[in-house]
Amino acid sequence: MPPPLSKFAQSAGGSVVVGMRLLADAVEARGVSVIDFGIGEPDFDAPEPVKEAAIRAIKDGHGTYVDPRGLRELREEIAAFEGTRHGLEVDPDQIVVTPGSYGALSAVTRALLDPDADAVIVEPGWGPYKALTSLTGATPIGAPMPVVDGRFTLDAASLEAAVTPRTRAIMINTPWNPTGRVLTRAELEDVAMVAERHDLWIIADEVYSELVYGEARHLSVAALGPEIAARTVIVTSLSKSFAMTGWRLGYCIAPLDLAPLLARVNQYTSRCATSFVQHAAVAALRDSMSFVDDMRAQYAARRDAVARGLNAIDGVNCPSPEGTFYAFASFDEAWGDSRDLASYLLEHAGVLLTPGSAYGPASRHHIRLSFAADLATIEEGIARMKDALPPPAQLTSND
To answer: Which of 212, 237, 290, 338 has the highest CB neighbour number within 10 Å of its CB?
Structure first.
């Protein structure tokens, strides 16, 4: 028998999104066309200035190790970007550049959590928050959020109910995957109040900050004041906002006394984010905002089509997403648990979706649909779903 494996690593479960994609592969192998509404990846290519800058950096020999904190030029550009776009006063020395937001979250959880600690995860919540917490040996504690007027809403009482004497941090996400919500100032103030009352860190995932629609506005919890900023670590990346998922370029923004520790963790995890990609990221932040604006406008049209189409299906309620590129719709309980429903729609409609139960028990009758697809594909996929779903009343009467 081989030696034992890490109990921490074994406690981190597999990805439901990846698992559903494998099921879709098997369906496609039978000759069925599958429309993919599961993947959380832009269907746009990276901006031309980004690609040109990467090629130029490679040709100029910028393929060596760099400072584990990230290139100074990039950190200065990030600080300017965060100031202009999000109203944050950031010193470049507060920034640590990482391989994607996964790298940022990995560094932050390792720096803040111990095996005897708990971390509160707002639910519905992106699955890797729990997995990355578990990899440190800490315990993730789900904090289910209530539904108000059809939308999941962050609630201070629900958040505080999950706090234990061992709690070290609260993880939040705005814009919020999977719900499509953009947290309001009042909701963020509730997070800040709970964090201050119990002396907790706030880990704020803001990876979708550039994908906000209509009257919604992104506000960072760190912008609430210096006392809150001093206990907040922002994790984000260029993956969603600049369609650079495979480029793996993210960053943390932390208090000045925490940033050196994050840099050391980053060094011993990956040494540094890929150097020529860091040069490309400078071009993204400096020269590609028009690309972001155009992409956002296309997503806005798609989210309107998704909400309109899903709400036309009897038994489905889909609030219009305020941000991200996800719709999070509730489906009548007559259709069963979301895992069974997602499997049914994959088999009978050829539509790949993500079951809401992947994000916590509070959303077991919800489905996440990624609208990172063109309008024609969205319309066809929703039409397939409508044709495949039996009316809820029919299922109820059969009971």
So the answer is: 237
Q: Which 8-state DSSP code applies to residue 231?
A: T
Closest of 315, 316, 343, 337 to residue 327, by C-alpha: 316
d(CA 331, CA 334): 8
pLDDT of residue 340 exceeding 60: yes
Are 288 and 50 contacting, i.e. CB atoms less than 8 angstroms apart? yes
Percent of the chain beyond pLDDT 70? 98
396 confidence band (pLDDT: 50, 70, 90)? low
Write the CB contacts of 31 (distance below 8 Å, at least 6 apart in sequence): none
pLDDT given for residue 291 in this prediction = 95
Q: What domains does the chain contain, in order, with CATH numbers? A: 7-45+290-389 (3.90.1150.10), 63-286 (3.40.640.10)
CA distance linking residue 124 with residue 364, whole number of Å? 10
Kindly report the number of other CB atoms within 10 A of residue 218's CB atom.
20
pLDDT value of residue 23:
81
